[in-house]
Design brief:
heterodimer, A: 464 residues, alpha/beta, six-stranded parallel beta sheet, two-stranded antiparallel sheet, 18 helices, 8 strands, B: 100 residues, mainly alpha, flat
Chain lengths: 464, 100
């Protein structure tokens, strides 16, 4: 197959990838979009086989490795519980990053195969592209591994900070740039390996200072990095499909990071520099005098909701941890039988990744047209009888609107306190991730339900 | 003087960033998780490079170091391609409209 013809086919698969993302503009078109994506990938792989035109023993091995990887991937995809999506996505990012590193290494070791010149005499532009691809890929890999370990709970979600951390990152970052420059002059393989190793280190250092609650930003950011790494390799291989995809994924991750930062009213650099609330919240939390709270049980909650005409559910990460989404759906079903109007309110940063709550509710068979985003539903709290807050905390804190001293001041929050009564399911009065006390606990119209989210919801179902 | 092909690739790259920008902003927030898993799957088109690396060189020397890196990259990318598209499909199947 001529290079021109295959380039045209790569362009087609690039366009199919654009259509795959375009499909996600609504749930109806999304499944079709996914098929476009699969078609684009199939075309890209077949065209590569045809243009390499080497159907010897190696081809069999490629197919075998493809099937091994494919079966592992399929196995994971079918077995993974929906609550574990954040760590799955982080894990997948690390694979893309490492694959980019490996391809860059292969290109550096055998540039002839990629038309990049010969060993020790690689084209200047290719050398820059492949070392950038390798560096970003390596950062994506080690960063995603740390994110994975934090999300999985193997590593503590608490930020790890030490003195001079940012200075070290800066020096290492500049070091990588200097080494790439030096690589272009010397073509030395030792320099190339150093770039890869230092980048692995940077990835680790970049993610350890970021706390658990900032994970939505981290995952989106690593998503973006994996895209830029792919684009870097795309330039090296002069492959349009890879360049288009890299740009798409890179900008997609960047936009998601932006949306997540906006949902927390924090700047991107503020998140990256890390350590939110981990430093000085202990004093404020302990100095708080004991304020009275109203304490209720499942029967009270059932009574309130049964007699309401409208109920808004506010789910958060705690719902995912307690696996309470199915019990919640049952509760909503029996409320609906009683003629209560029920809708769900989702804060942009609820959960550990963008859209996490929506997937969990969809898994529990909640129709997507009952689930609303913050801007869509926030005015409805004023007209609603009961707000049922399950596993959410900081995103409902009215302090964000009233107290300029608060670390979360200015963060968009759900106006839960405006509803006639608030049912707040929580295990204790402990503060949320931001480390600040929630003013909502002490309001007159708030009834605290101290229990595990799932158990409480199941009990409410029983007494309905 | 002729235009370097690199400039063309750079043009494609920059235009694609713009396409990505507008397409991603039109993605509904409730599908942000599938968006991440599908972008993950499509970025594994890096397998193209892995296949070229794995099949480079003559048949009797298919296990040189560079080929091995190619084979490893194929496994990693394949996990992602199958895993990414299938888990996206699994999620999208769950999104249902209210029964009227």
């Amino acid at each position: 197959m001529t290079p021109n013809l295959s380039a045209l086919f790569y362009l087609i698969s690039g366009i199919l990838f654009i259509l795959a993302l375009r499909g996600l503009s609504s749930p109806e078109t999304s499944r079709q979009g996914n098929y476009f994506g699969i078609a684009g990938m199939t075309i890209a792989i077949i065209i590569t086989f045809l243009s390499v035109d080497n159907f010897g023993a190696g081809f069999i091995y490629v197919l075998v490795f493809l099937l091994i990887g494919g079966s592992i991937g399929a196995f994971i995809a079918f077995r993974i519980p929906m609550t574990a999506m954040p760590e799955l996505v982080a894990g997948f990012h690390s694979l893309v990053g490492l694959a980019a590193v490996f391809v860059a290494i292969a290109a550096f070791l055998k540039p002839v195969a990629f038309n990049l010149g010969s060993v020790g005499n690689i084209k200047l532009a290719s050398l820059i592209e492949m070392s950038l691809g390798a560096a970003i890929g390596a950062i994506t890999f080690s960063g995603s591994i740390i994110a994975f370990l934090k999300l999985r709970g193997i590593m503590s979600g608490a930020p790890i900070t030490f003195k001079g951390q940012h200075l070290i990152n800066l020096i290492l970052g500049l070091g990588i740039i200097f080494l790439i420059y030096y690589l272009c002059i010397s073509q030395s393989s030792n320099i190339f390996w150093s770039i890869v190793i230092i980048s692995f280190l940077v990835g680790v250092l970049l993610i350890i200072p970021i706390g658990g609650a900032d994970m939505p930003v981290v995952i989106s950011m690593l998503n973006s990095y994996s895209g830029w790494a792919a684009a870097g390799i795309g330039f090296t291989l002069e492959n349009t499909a890879l360049i288009i995809t890299g740009a798409l994924v890179g900008s997609s991750g960047a936009i998601l990071s932006y949306i997540m930062c906006k949902g927390m009213n924090r700047s991107f650099f503020n998140v990256i520099l890390g350590g939110w609330g981990a430093t000085d919240h202990t004093s404020t939390a302990q100095n708080k005098e004991q304020k009275p709270v109203k304490n209720g049980n499942a029967d009270d909650a059932a009574f309130l909701m049964k007699n309401a005409s409208s109920v808004i559910i506010v789910p958060g990460y705690g719902m995912a941890v307690a696996q309470a989404q199915h019990a919640l759906r049952e509760m909503v079903d029996s409320l609906k039988k009683n003629g209560v109007k029920v809708s769900y309110a989702i804060h942009p940063v609820a959960g550990r990744m963008p859209g996490h709550m929506n997937v969990l509710l969809a898994e529990a068979n909640v129709p997507y047209d009952e689930v609303f985003e913050l801007e869509e539903i926030n005015n409805d709290f004023a007209n609603c009888d009961v707000a049922y807050v399950i596993g959410a905390n900081d995103v409902t804190n009215p302090v964000a609107k009233s107290d300029p001293q608060s670390p979360i001041y200015g963060m968009p929050v759900l106006d839960v306190e405006k509803s006639k009564s608030v049912l707040f399911v929580k295990r204790s009065l402990s503060p949320g991730y931001a480390g600040i006390d929630n003013d909502l606990f002490y309001r007159d119209n708030t009834l605290m339900l101290f229990a595990d989210a799932k158990k409480m919801t199941e009990e409410i179902v029983k007494s309905l | 003087m002729e235009i370097d092909p690199f400039i063309f690739r750079l043009s494609i790259f920059i235009l694609s960033i713009f396409v990505g920008y507008y397409v991603v902003w039109s993605v509904t927030p409730s599908l942000h998780t599938p968006l991440m898993s599908v972008t993950n799957a499509i970025s594994s088109v890096i397998i193209v490079g892995a296949i070229i690396a794995a099949l480079a060189g003559s048949t009797d020397k298919i296990f040189e170091t560079s080929n091995l890196f190619g084979f490893l990259a194929i496994i990693l990318a394949a996990v992602n391609i199958f895993g990414g598209f299938l888990v996206t499909q699994r999620m999208l199947q769950m999104y249902k409209k209210k029964k009227k």
